[in-house]
Specification:
300 residues; mainly alpha; two-stranded antiparallel ribbon; 12 helices; 3% strand
């Protein structure tokens, strides 16, 4: 670890390369976190199956590419397929736990994540898979920074989706209904909004965002049926830092997490990169709890 830190000090361009690649990676984390923030804010549910939606999006992209679809066109296909899956899961399971105790919804979505893992293992197999895109790499600043083009595509896609989501929530009728339901579901029902339909659309939209993220994950890295949990934790971390209903903050937190994780992977070793994410989550939760407790004492 000391040697790696010394390398970063001796060669600052190495750190710049790690940060630049981390920012590209963080855009995918932000894409998955958009959905978790929506579901948490509107339905009041922390979706533990978030990472499994990302994993399913990757397998949909792989299947579509196997049928001859160009890799980049699998992104909207995966989003569409996961939208249908999300709508179906809402009608089967999620509507039963809306407005229930948070612990009940945690158990329900945790159960869903296990079922999706096992079904994916049976259908797609346990092998680690990736999707070749045929894209190359970009060499910038005389070779100081090297970026794969698929990571750049991921970055642009995440920013575009974030902008589109912001416009949808501001301008579209359904987007306005989602915002109204998030602010006060009872008042929204009194005003004639079909909140059950809003909940279903929100959960499906969340799954679609994860599907798009999953298709980018399988092109940039690898997937397998049990890869979901780290993406759930990353989404949770991003939402904890950014808060609910702030798309710009979600993007910023996602990019920051990607850069931090990439640096930690280099300094601590790749085998401790996921452990760093879990430790960071514990530190943030403990720090947030301490800060909230002090705030309550101040109010007293």
């Amino acid at each position: 670890m000391i040697e790696n830190l010394q390398l970063l000090i001796d060669y600052p361009s190495l750190g710049a390369d790690l940060v630049a690649n981390g920012l590209m990676i963080g855009a995918i984390f932000a894409l998955a976190a958009f959905g978790m923030a929506l579901v948490w804010g509107v339905l009041g549910i922390i979706n533990i199956a978030q990472g499994e939606f990302v994993m399913l999006g990757g397998f949909v992209a792989l299947t579509a590419a196997g049928l001859g679809v160009p890799p980049l066109l699998t992104i909207p296909l995966a989003a569409l397929a996961l939208f249908v899956v999300g709508w179906g899961l809402y009608r089967l399971v999620i509507f039963r736990v809306v407005d229930r105790d948070l612990f009940v919804s945690l158990l329900a979505t945790f159960g869903l994540s296990i079922i999706l893992q096992q079904l994916s293992n049976e259908i797609f197999g346990a092998d680690v898979r990736t999707l070749e895109t045929g894209l190359g790499t970009l060499v910038l600043f005389d070779g100081q920074i090297v970026l794969s083009e698929i990571k750049l595509v991921s970055f642009v896609t995440a920013l575009t989706v974030g902008l589109a989501l912001w416009a949808f929530l501001k301008r579209a009728r359904l987007g306005q209904a989602i915002r109204a339901t998030a602010q006060n579901a009872r008042a929204a029902r009194i005003l004639g909004i079909d909140t059950d339909r809003v909940y279903a659309a929100t959960y499906a939209l969340n799954a679609a965002l994860c599907g798009a993220a999953g298709s980018l994950v399988v092109m940039a890295w690898t997937i397998h049926p049990y890869i979901g949990l780290p993406y759930t934790v990353r989404s949770f971390l991003v939402v904890i830092v950014a808060g609910l209903g702030n798309i710009v903050a979600v993007i910023t937190a996602g990019l920051g997490l990607g850069a931090l994780e990439n640096l930690a992977g280099f300094i601590l070793g790749a085998e401790y990169q996921i452990a760093f994410v879990f430790v960071l989550m514990v530190i943030l939760l403990v720090g947030r709890n301490f800060w909230l407790r002090r705030k309550r004492e101040y109010l007293k």
